[in-house]
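fyi for ur records
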Amino acid sequence: MRFIRVKIRWFGLLLGLTASSVAYAAAEDDPLLFMAMVDQLEVRLTSGDNPLTWDADAWLGKDLNKLWLKTEGERVNGENEEVELQLLYSRAVSAYWDFQAGWRGDLRPRPDRNWLAVGFKGLAPYFFEIDAAIFVGESGRTAARIDLEYEILFTQRLILTPEFETNLYGKKDAELGIGSGLSDIEVGLRLRYEFRREFAPYIGLNWWKKFGDTADFAKAAGQDSDDAQITLGLRAWF
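which gave:
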């Protein structure tokens, strides 16, 4: 009987070590990771002031669950003209798609606006990158945004990226010069050269146009309702 008890104890110890090894291996297979991407940091050459614009994001998390930070904006003559910040919880729902929900803050121009953000980010068939979201704000405000991107590889280092973005709003916001319905469209074409994957300067063309009441608000304020620009910028990540 003593021999049997010893064998049982050793067997139990072996099971415990095996379970610990499996748990450790599982943890190693799903480590905590971090990534920051500056997708666009560029100067846009116009007939007037040349704005500095940025579009960047970062995430922290594991394979299925992540915390995302997104920001974009425009700076002219040392002043922030437009600043948007999003803080989102992201959950992988398939191999190529993440569901995202959280907060969006339009910090510039004033007055600022806060939104509940819900959307999907991922890779569609034919390798189109899509970031689509709807937003619900104060006083019954609603909005939607679709952002499309595609990469054309001429070589492993020389890459052309067509981009498309559009914004729609459910109601007029006269304080910020935004009309209801289709508000604006922006189309870009950027050619970058990756000296390394993490460092790629680029040159490109960017065109945007405002529509409806948004265009009317801009014209009334003495601003352009459309423009085409040459862009010089940098794409980097770590």
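The chain has a mean pLDDT of 90. thats all i got for now
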